[in-house]
Design a protein that fits this description.
By secondary structure, this protein is α+β, with helices and mostly antiparallel strands. The chain folds into 2 domains: about 375 residues, Periplasmic binding protein-like II (D-Maltodextrin-Binding Protein, domain 2, 3-Layer(aba) Sandwich); about 250 residues, Dipeptide-binding Protein, Domain 3 (Dipeptide-binding Protein, domain 3, Roll), CATH 3.10.105.10. Helices cover about 25% and strands about 20% of the residues. It has 19 helices and 27 strands. It has a 6-stranded antiparallel beta sheet. A hairpin with a 6-residue loop joins strand 5 and strand 6. The radius of gyration is 25 Å and the shape is globular. The N terminus is likely disordered.
Length: about 625
C-alpha cells in the first residue's frame, strides 16, 4: 500500500541521498532474525527490512537498489516546473495550498523499494521488530540520525509526530492511523506502536514505517495547524534554500547529511540544487521549457507531445524526447460524479453518462491515438478484474448479493465503444433508454424529470487545457437533453471545493499501488463520505464496498489480496461512479541533453531522483547553445 494524499501538489521527485556511518553499514550486513519476545511468548521478526507478503528482495548485505547507479555523479543544478501556486510549507494539514517539495526535507522511518509491491527498508530506524500476529511494531532508531540543526532524532520525536498528525493533521491521517492504539517509548532508542486488539490489518507495521519524522522541539513554539512560509527544520537530504510564494522554490542538498551512504539511497539525489518554477498555464510552461528556462519536463498530454515540442532546439538534438515504459498499476482517471448530488444518485443515470463519452473519437482526434481506454481501477496489473467471475471470485462476492449490481456476477465490465467516426448513435440510444428507465423524458429537446426539471450539472476544472477534452463530451450530453456546463477555476478555489465536496462532476485521478490496502478506506469507505478533505470525492457509500475493503486490509497473503482486490474492482466497475478516461503504459519525458541515468529502470518507469548532470553532455550543451548556464 502507499499513502496517496490527493491534493493538487507536485510530489518532489528527488528523495534522500543518505550517508551513514560504519556502524550503520555493519548493521545492514547483519541478517534478520526471529527473536523471543520479552515474555518468552511468540517469536518476533527483527531485521533491517520488512515485506507485506513473502520475503524481501534485497538481502541485508545489499549495496544499493538495482535501479540505482553507485557511480552517479554528484553536483550541478536542475530546474523543473510546477503548475498553480503554493502558500504554505506545511503539507501535513488541510489548510492552504502546500508545496509537496517540503517532503524532501524530512526522512521517513523506512524507505520504499520501487521494484517490489510493498517492501520497506530501514532509514531512520536500523531495525524493525514485528511479531507473527502483527499486533504491534517497534523501531530501533539509528543513533546517528539527526535533524539539520544537529539534534538527534529520538523516540519522542516519532511519538510526537504520530500523535500530532492524528489530532491536528490532515483528516486523512486519522483514517490512515485509525488502527494504531498507542505509541510509546520502550527503550533508549526504541519506539513501539501497539495496534487495536482484533484489528485485522496486516499492513499496519508498514503503514507506520512510512511516517515522516518531524522535530518536536521545533514545533513546540509554533502552531502546527496554521499555514506557514517559514522553511521548516528537517532531517532529509535537502533543505529549502530560497523561495518566493507562488513563484519558485529552491532546495539545496545538505552537505553534511547524516545518512548519505546508506544502501537504500546510494545513487540518489545527485543534484546540488533543485529549483521548481511555478507557472499558471501549461502552454506558457511548455514555451518556457523550449526556451531553456527549465531542464526536464514530464508530459501527460498526447497532443502536446505529438505536435507542440517542435523547435530549433529539438531539431538540433539539444532537447531529447523519450518514452519510458512503466509496469506500475495505472489507477483510474475519469470524469467523477459526486453521488451526494441528486442528479447522480441513480446508477442508471450514471451509466447513461458513461455511454455519452466517445473515447474512440477523442483518442483519434485529440490524442493522436496515444491512449488505451481504462476499464479497471487497477489497470495494467494482475489486480484488474477481467472476464467473468471465477468460482473463487463468486465465493467472495456471494455474501453481497442484493447489495451490489447483479452484473457483477454475470458479466465482464467494459466501457462502451464506438468506431471513432463521431457517430455514437447506438450508444446514444442506450443512454436514452437508461435515462427513460430512471424516470426522465425528453420535452422540447430538454431531458426532464416527472416534475419538469431539466437534468443538468456543472463540470468543474482547474486546468483550462482539459476544456478541449470535456467540451465535446458536453456537446454529446446536450444531444441527450442534459444541460451540462464547464467551469474552470483557480487552484486554491478548486482545492477548497474538492475538500468540501462542492462540485457536481470533475476530473479525478485515483492512484493505486501494487499492494492496495488502507488507502482504499479513504477512497471508498462510507465513513469518509462526510469527512472534509477525504479522498472519497465520489461519495461511495455501500456496505458491501466497506466489507470488501476490510477483507483487502486483512488479506493474509498475496494470492488472497489479489482475489479480494479484483472483487472490489468488479463492484466499483459496475457502480458506474466515473466515466473512465484513458492511460498509457509509458512515461513521456522531454529534457535538455545534459543528463544521464542508470541503465536499469524501476517499475514506475521514471525516477529522476536517480538522474545526474553528465559533465561532458553539460559542457557540450553549453557550447552548442552558445551561452553559459
Amino acid at each position: 500500500m502507499r499513502f496517496f494524499p490527493r491534493r493538487p501538489v507536485r510530489r518532489f521527485f528527488a528523495s534522500a541521498l543518505i550517508r551513514g556511518s560504519a556502524f550503520a553499514a555493519a548493521l545492514l550486513l547483519a541478517a534478520p532474525a526471529l527473536a523471543q519476545s520479552p515474555g518468552g511468548a511468540a517469536k518476533v521478526y527483527v531485521g533491517p527490512a520488512f515485506a507485506m507478503h513473502g520475503d524481501v528482495k534485497y538481502k541485508p548485505d545489499f549495496r544499493h537498489f538495482d535501479y540505482a547507479d553507485p557511480k552517479a555523479i554528484k553536483g550541478g543544478d536542475v530546474k523543473f516546473h510546477a503548475i498553480g501556486t503554493f502558500d504554505s510549507f506545511n503539507t501535513f494539514i488541510l489548510r492552504g495550498v502546500p508545496t509537496g517539495l517540503v517532503l524532501s526535507t524530512y526522512d521517513q522511518l523506512m524507505a520504499g523499494s520501487s521494484d517490489e509491491p510493498f517492501t520497506r527498508y530501514c532509514l531512520v530506524c536500523e531495525t524493525i521488530e514485528v511479531p507473527a500476529d502483527r499486533s504491534w511494531v517497534a523501531f530501533n532508531l539509528r543513533p546517528e540520525a539527526r535533524f539539520h540543526d544537529g539534534s538527534p532524532i529520538t523516540p519522542e520525536d516519532v511519538i510526537w509526530t504520530f500523535e500530532t498528525l492524528k489530532t491536528k493533521g490532515h483528516p486523512s491521517y486519522r483514517s490512515y492511523y485509525a488502527g494504531v492504539m498507542k505509541a510509546e517509548k520502550t527503550g533508549p532508542r526504541q519506539v513501539k506502536f501497539t495496534f487495536t486488539p482484533g484489528e485485522e490489518n496486516n499492513e499496519l507495521p508498514l503503514i507506520v514505517s512510512e511516517l515522516y519524522v518531524l522535530p518536536r522541539a521545533y514545533w513546540q513554539s509554533r502552531d502546527f495547524e496554521k499555514t506557514t512560509l517559514e522553511p521548516p527544520l528537517g532531517s532529509g537530504p535537502y533543505r529549502i534554500d530560497s523561495f518566493e510564494a507562488g513563484r519558485f522554490v529552491t532546495l539545496r542538498r545538505v552537505p553534511d547529511y547524516w545518512a548519505i551512504n546508506l544502501p537504500v539511497n546510494v545513487g540518489k539525489n545527485n543534484f546540488d540544487v533543485i529549483r521548481y518554477d511555478y507557472y499558471r498555464d501549461q502552454t506558457v510552461a511548455l514555451e518556457a521549457f523550449k526556451a531553456g528556462e527549465y531542464d526536464i519536463r514530464p508530459e501527460n498530454q498526447a497532443l502536446a507531445w505529438a505536435t507542440l515540442y517542435e523547435s530549433p532546439a529539438l531539431a538540433a538534438g539539444l532537447i531529447k524526447k523519450v518514452e519510458i515504459p512503466t509496469r506500475t498499476v495505472s489507477g483510474m482517471q475519469g470524469f467523477a460524479m459526486n453521488t451526494r448530488r441528486d442528479a447522480f444518485k441513480d446508477p442508471r443515470v450514471r451509466q447513461a453518462l458513461v455511454y455519452a463519452f466517445d473515447f474512440e473519437w477523442s483518442n483519434k482526434n485529440l490524442f493522436h491515438g496515444a491512449y488505451t481506454r481504462t476499464r479497471s481501477y487497477f489497470d495494467n496489473s494482475e489486480l484488474a478484474a477481467t472476464g467473468l467471475p471465477s468460482p473463487a471470485d463468486l465465493k467472495l462476492l456471494d455474501p453481497f448479493r442484493g447489495k451490489i449490481p447483479d452484473e457483477v456476477f454475470t458479466a465482464e465490465y467494459n466501457p462502451p465503444k464506438t468506431d471513432g467516426s463521431g457517430n455514437w448513435r447506438e450508444n446514444q440510444r442506450i443512454a436514452t433508454r437508461l435515462l427513460r428507465e430512471a424516470g426522465y423524458r425528453v420535452d422540447n429537446n430538454r431531458l426532464v424529470d416527472a416534475a419538469g426539471n431539466q437534468l443538468g450539472f456543472e463540470f468543474l476544472l482547474n486546468n483550462p487545457q482539459f476544456e478541449r477534452v470535456v467540451l465535446p463530451y458536453v456537446e454529446n450530453l446536450k444531444r441527450l437533453g442534459i444541460a451540462a456546463r464547464v467551469r474552470t477555476i483557480d487552484t486554491a478555489q478548486y482545492q477548497r471545493r474538492m475538500d468540501e465536496f462542492d462540485f457536481d462532476m470533475t476530473v479525478d485521478s485515483i492512484p493505486q499501488s501494487e499492494s492496495p490496502g488502507n488507502e482504499q478506506r479513504n477512497y471508498w469507505h462510507s465513513s469518509k463520505v462526510k469527512e472534509v478533505g477525504s479522498a472519497n470525492l465520489i461519495g461511495v457509500s455501500n456496505p458491501a464496498v466497506d466489507a470488501l475493503i476490510d477483507l483487502i486490509i486483512s488479506a493474509p497473503d498475496r494470492e488472497s489480496l489479489v482475489a479480494r482486490v479484483r472483487a472490489l474492482d468488479r463492484v466499483l466497475q459496475w457502480g458506474h461512479y466515473v466515466v473512465p478516461n484513458w492511460h498509457t503504459r509509458t512515461v513521456r519525458v522531454a529534457y535538455w541533453d545534459r543528463f544521464s541515468w542508470p541503465t536499469i529502470t524501476p517499475r514506475q518507469g521514471y525516477a529522476v531522483s536517480y538522474w545526474w548532470v553528465d559533465p561532458q553532455k553539460d559542457a557540450a550543451l553549453r557550447e552548442r547553445r552558445g551561452r553559459s548556464r
